[in-house]
Structure formats: structure tokens, C-alpha cells
Amino acid sequence: MPELRKDPVVGRWVIIATERARRPSDFVTAAVPLRSSPCPFCPGNEEETPREILAGRAPGSGADAPGWTYRVVPNKFPALRIEGELEPAGEGLFDHMNGVGAHEVIIETPDHHASLATMSVDEVTDVLWAYRERLADLKKDPRFEYVLVFKNHGEAAGASLEHPHSQLIATPIIPIMVREELTGAADYYRRKERCVWCDIVRQERRAQRRLIAELGGFVALAPFAPRFPCETWIVPTRHAAAFEESGVDELHGLAEILGDFLRRMNRVLGEPAYNFMLHTAPLDEPDLSHFHWHLEIIPKVTKVAGFEWGSGFFINPVSPEAAAAALRGEVG
Amino acid sequence: MPELRKDPVVGRWVIIATERARRPSDFVTAAVPLRSSPCPFCPGNEEETPREILAGRAPGSGADAPGWTYRVVPNKFPALRIEGELEPAGEGLFDHMNGVGAHEVIIETPDHHASLATMSVDEVTDVLWAYRERLADLKKDPRFEYVLVFKNHGEAAGASLEHPHSQLIATPIIPIMVREELTGAADYYRRKERCVWCDIVRQERRAQRRLIAELGGFVALAPFAPRFPCETWIVPTRHAAAFEESGVDELHGLAEILGDFLRRMNRVLGEPAYNFMLHTAPLDEPDLSHFHWHLEIIPKVTKVAGFEWGSGFFINPVSPEAAAAALRGEVG
Description:
By secondary structure, the first copy, chain A, is of the alpha+beta class.
């Protein structure tokens, strides 16, 4: 069973994923290259993954067989396990609990060589709909407090398989960064009686300097204090706390702007590795008037070093104004 | 002038290092390989660096000429600038200020091919003494609130030069992670009237399972909730908040255990890239009974991916008990 452990000073939880049973010496060899062939996510290899939870399927095609447009399956090497109870316990001054949670993979397309930047808007909409369905389903499990949907694209971003996929992890506690975002947003709301993201969107649309695109009810913008070159937030212009309450029209709009942004990013940065993370409301707090869901995208073009790890302070060599101008197509 | 900018939600500051004047398209090319030759840090090339601030020198050798054992120089491409005032200002709902600070490089040895793992205890003690001297000196500048001493060793850890060196950055605000550590430690102290690191050292010495080494008044231990495989803390057994108040005996002890640990790490992980960060008290709060300085070392053998960036939660495939056993030489 993996284990959740809490740092006694800063309160940060980590997952000790003991089930993967790695010895320290396993890390002596250089980084494992991206696995591309044989590909466990390609059609025909469905038996290489655990049984599918959800799929977009042509009429008449059976589960765990070819004929799908997207597939959601449990991660074969999960960071958290779906079975069991938390059983929180102490060890002297330390706190730990069982690593209970869900870890799923969303295989975005049967085409090994496609990407969210090349897929059609309808195909991307289906992937986003799958996120929505899984969030809505995992919400019913009272053991879970949060679901993080994320994507690791490319080796530098932590992907171990090449075939287009995203992931989700459901956790039994609200992660520290989500908690910090909620606290900061609640403080702002108390002072101003307005949502901070609504205010940011309003200010950035007026100022234009950090605006990258506006499409289908969403803006893509370079945040004022970005950690990484070309870090980008995609924010719905209409206030909403919970991603899973989006309708198909909203997901279609998100698919449009996401594809548009990824193509801009690829043009400016030359198809970089990247991560994206869906920031949505915790499962048990859906009606947050101070929280506004959004998608954060971070291209991996710089290295995180000692200063960042020791301070939480990031050094970004590109201003968000220059990044936004390049991503708008003005320079770059 | 670089600029400090604050995220309006989570309160995290970033440094927009505009002086480096990078355009987004500069990141299209693959990562710059480590520069080894010609080496600006090797003896004879002293004119390649800004003028030295401090050096260990043989009698009769002049500044910025060969004959040194270590050298401290301003970073040629500083993230923060030493000249100027902060001039905090707003832009709508955003806060920013001038990027005033200090960014220095400690060249640890004239030998390009040496390392802290191969240098003598006396040579490493001199490097630590240089940290102490620079901290004590920068403390006199009322614009600075914190000095972070850190090391990036190897390309994967963010180093851009091969020659052994560490760095320090003095910042005009207390970094968010230092603040979180201080807050957590103060909470613990209020509840227990004891320092949390003193309690950790006491518990770990008794339990032994996560203890790696004990030498010269220090312990090296695998923290209970480590983010990375073989993450290690070196903690003085005697309570002290401010590193720069250490005497030469203490720095000699630290040099001993640091070299010992790095050789253990190299044996287990095959000379990995690594970072270390000195966690010491803020400059204006030297008498913190709840804070205990320590050195954190993180080997870079895993990639940080979307889950970590989106949650602040880390997945670590190696338990600290297995890491400590391997580093003690029992297995691995």
C-alpha cells in the first residue's frame, strides 16, 4: 500500500509510492527514454492496460477492444490505490495514512502521432467531457476531497509514454497548493467582495498587454507573476467554481482555445514538453463564490534549480508581456 | 532592472529577470550543455568574472589574479541587482517592486575537476566559512531580509558551468517557503514549547531507521516525508537558528559530514546531479528559539511533473527508510 506522509514543519504531504518498490540504486542509470513501441495505449493493445472505466466507442464495439475514440483506464502503476481506508496514524511526532485514492489515465486518441494541438475541436471536446464525467463520478466517493486532472507531455515534463494521454489523481486530502489558492482567493473576496480571477480577466482584457487569445467564452493570458517562460492560464470569462458543472458548449469553447494556444506555443517554442493542470474546486465545496476554475499550462524550457527549491521564489528570464506578444504572433 | 512581481492569489513572488533580455524564441533550441571550456572560473581567467568580493589567498597574491583557494564574485548575469531602491508600486490589482538584491558566486576550488565530495575537510571548511562571511556582511544592508545559499551541481540540477561553485541570492523579502517553514515551526513551538528540529533529531537518533550518519556535531537524516529519492537533511545537534553564528569548529564538523554524505550519495546513486539549499534564519530575526538552521540536499534523479506542479504534493518512489539504509551502506 502506498503511504501518505506529512512534513511536520510545513504541513506538505507526500506520497511514498512503495508499491512501485524502487530501490535507490534503480536511479543510477540515466533517465528512462520515452517509451513509444510497443505502445500499450495503441488500438489492438487494450489488454496491456487495466480494464477501461469509460470510453468513446463506435456502436457495437465491445469494451477493451479496438473501436474507441478515447479511453479512460486505471493507471497500471498507480501512485494511490483505490481499495482500503485511510487509517490515519502517528509515529512519534509524524503523521501518516494509507495511500488511498484513484489514479487514472485518459488516452486522448487512438492515433499515436496525434496531439491536442492537431486533433479536431470535437475530438478535444470529447477528452474534456471525459474529464468532466470522471470528476462527477469520483465526487460520489466520500473518501476523496480533490481530483487533480493534469497532463505531462514529453520526457522533460515527466511523461514516460509517448502516446497522447492525460491523467487524474483523486486524493483524500486537499493538496497544499489548492488550499493556498483557496485561502488567497477567499482573502481577496473578503476584502473586495469580488472573485480575484474575474477581476484579473477584467483588468487584462482592458490592458491587453498580457492577453494571448480570446475565444469561445475563454481568455488565454500570461499571468502577471509567471514562474516559467510562456506560462499561460486559460480562464472562462463567466464565473464558475467547478469544472465538472460545465456544459458541452463550454467544453467546446475550451477545446477551441486550448488547441489554439497549443499551436501558438508550438510555433513560438518549437513543440516543447509541457504540463497542464486543471485547477477546479474541491469536491465537497462546489459553491465557492471566491473560486474560479482555470487551466494552467507550463512549457518546460527552463530548469528548476536550488534557488527555487529553497525559496519558492522563481526566476523567469522572459517577461509575461514579451511572452504574450510572441504568442499573439507579434514578435518572437 | 529586474522586477519582483507578486501573484495576487497565492502571494508567491517571482523575479522577472529582464536584464538577461531573453525572447521566448531563445528557448526553441535544446538545453544549453554545461560549459566546461574555456572556463571563466579556472585560475588565470579571473578577468572573466566581475571583481572578487572575498577570496582565500596565499600571502602576496593580489586580488583577481591566481593564487587563491576559493573566490567569491558577483554573478555576471545576476537575477537581482545590487544598486537601487525597491520602489514598491501597483498596477491595478497587481504588486511589483524593483529587483534589488545581491547574487554572488562562490568558486569553491581552483581545481576544475574537484568537488565537495573529493576536497579535503579543511578546503570545504573554507568554503563554508566564505558563506558565513558573506551572510554576516550582507546582513548589514538594511534592504535585505534573507540570504539563500544554494548549490546547483550538474546540468539536471540547473548548473550552467561545470567548475565547482555555489551561489547566494540576497532578497528584499522573506521567500514564501522560508515563511512557511518559520510559521510551521512557530506553531509547533507554541504547542510544545520545543523546537521541532530538536525533537526530530531526538526521535530519529532513537529510532535509527532514517539516520544516515552522525559526525562532528551533526546528523544526516532522511526526512520522514521527503519529496525526492534520497532527499537528505543535515542538522546540527545543538540548537542554533543562524548559520552565520557558527564557529570554525562547527563549520569543520559540517564540512566533515557534508563530504561524507556526498560520497555516500555518489556511491548509491552514481554521482547524480544535485541541489543543496541552506535553510537559515532571516537576517532581521536572529534569535528565533523555534528555528533551527539546516542544510537540505536533493539529488535530481526524478522529474517533477504536472501532479506536483498542480498540487504541491510529491510522489516519491523510494521510502526514506530504504534510502537511509542504502546510504548507510546496508543495501542498495
